Amino acid sequence: MEGHGSFSSFRTYFRALAKTPTRFAARATSVSTSFEEMSGVRTHSGHQMVKTLRWFDLVGFGLGGMVGAGVFLTTGRASHVFAGPAVVLSYAVAGVCALLSAFCYTEFAVDMPVAGGAFSYLRVTFGEFAAFLTGANLVMEYVFSNAAVARSFTAYLGTAIGVSTTDKWRFTVSGLPEGFNQIDLVAVALVLLISLCICYSTKESSLLNIVLTTIHIAFILFIILIGFCRGEWKNLTTPLNPSSPSGFFPHGASGVFNGAAMVYLSYIGYDAVSTMAEEVKNPKKDIPIGVSGSVVLVTVLYCLMATSMSMLVPYDAMTDVESPFAAAFRGSEGWGWVSHVVGAGASFGILTSLLVSMLGQARYLCVIGRSNVVPAWFARVHPKTSTPVNASAFLAWVWLRHRAVHGGHRSLH
C-alpha cells in the first residue's frame, strides 16, 4: 500500500483498493535499493533494533534452527527406501547444497544487514511483487510448520518420560470438526512462553537458545557415541536379508541423491539466521561465520548420526522409519532406556527450532510492514525491548488459533 494513510480508515482503504490495478502496475516491478532498505524503510519501525549479537550467537541460532526433530524422522526413511548405509553421503550432499545457499544469504546479509531476509533481498533484485509472493509464502510456511512443531513437542516429551502424554495432556472439544477438535495445553503454554521471551529481548533469547542447543547437542553426541560403541561395522555393507541389495551403495548413486533430496528438510532453518542481521554488531565478520559455520557443524553432526544409525541396524531392517533411533534401542535387552534419551533429545531440538523460527518470522513480518504491504503497525519496534513486539504477539495469536490448539499433523522439522 502507498503510505501509512491507506490503512488509516475504512474509507481511505477502500479508496486505495479501487486503485489496485494502477498501483499494482506501478509497484510490481519497482526495485528498492540497499540504501533505501537500511535508511528510509527502516525508519518506519520508529525505533531501531539494538545490535547485540555476535558470531557465536548466530552459530547458536543456526544450530538451534536446523538441528530439530527432522533428523530423527528423515534418516530412517531415506536409508530404508533410497540410500541404504550411504545415507551418510546423502547428508553430505544435502549439506553442500545448503552451504551454497547459505553463501547467497551471507552475501546479501553482509551487503544489506536488515531484518527482512529473503523478502528484502528480492525487493532490491526482482521488485516488490516477487518479494510479496516470497514474503507471503514464508509467513505461511512458518505458521503451519511452527504450529505443528509445537504440537509434536508433546509427543516427544511423552517418549522421553515414558508416558502417553498425547492422551493425558490433550482434551477434545465437542462441536469442532474431527481432527481439529483437540486442545494441546502443552503446545499452548510452549508458544506463549517462547513468545514472551522473544518479545522481551533478542539477546536473552539468544542465551536461552544457546543453553537449550548445548543440552540438545549433548544428547545427540551421546546417541552418536552409543551407536558407535554398540553398532557393528558390517551393517554398513551387509543387509539383514541376503536377497536385499548389498554393499555401501545398495541403490547406487541415484539412491544417494534421492536420499539427499529427502534429508535436505533437516537443514531448513539457516535462512532464519539472516533475519537477525540488523541486530549483529559486526555484520561483515559475524554473519559469514554464523551462517556458514552453523551449516558446516550441522552437516558433521548429521553425517555422524547417519553413520551411527546405519551401524546399529541394517538398512533393510529399519521397519520403524518414523523413529529409527528410538526403535534401534527399544527392542534391545538392557538398552531400552536409550529410546527415552532419543525422545528427550528431540524435545530439546523442537524447543530450539521453534524459538529460532518464531524469531525469524516476527522479523519477516516486521519488515513486510515497513514496506506498507501490510499495516505498518506490524513494523513497530518497542522502545524498551528493541524487538518487534507487535509482529511477535500477532503471530503467537495466529499459531494458537491454528494447529497448536485445533489439531494438525506432526512436522518433519
How would you characterize this protein structure?
The structure is a single chain. This protein is an all-alpha fold and 413 residues long. Helices cover 64% and strands 1% of the residues. The chain is built from 18 helices and two strands. It has helices spanning 10-18, 20-27, 34-38, 55-66, 70-83, 87-111, 118-123, 128-161, 165-168, 185-200, 202-230, 252-263, 271-274, 283-312, 324-330, 337-370, 389-401, 403-406, and strands at 170-172, 182-184. The chain has a two-stranded antiparallel ribbon. Helix 6 (87-111) runs antiparallel to helix 14. The two termini are 34 Å apart. Mean pLDDT is 83; it is low at 404-413.
Short description:
This protein is mostly helical and 413 residues long. The chain has helices spanning 10-18, 20-27, 34-38, 55-66, 70-83, 87-111, 118-123, 128-161, 165-168, 185-200, 202-230, 252-263, 271-274, 283-312, 324-330, 337-370, 389-401, 403-406; strands at residues 170-172, 182-184.
Topology, pairings included?
Layout: H1 10-18, H2 20-27, H3 34-38, H4 55-66, H5 70-83, H6 87-111, H7 118-123, H8 128-161, H9 165-168, E1 170-172, E2 182-184, H10 185-200, H11 202-230, H12 252-263, H13 271-274, H14 283-312, H15 324-330, H16 337-370, H17 389-401, H18 403-406
Antiparallel strand pairs: 1-2
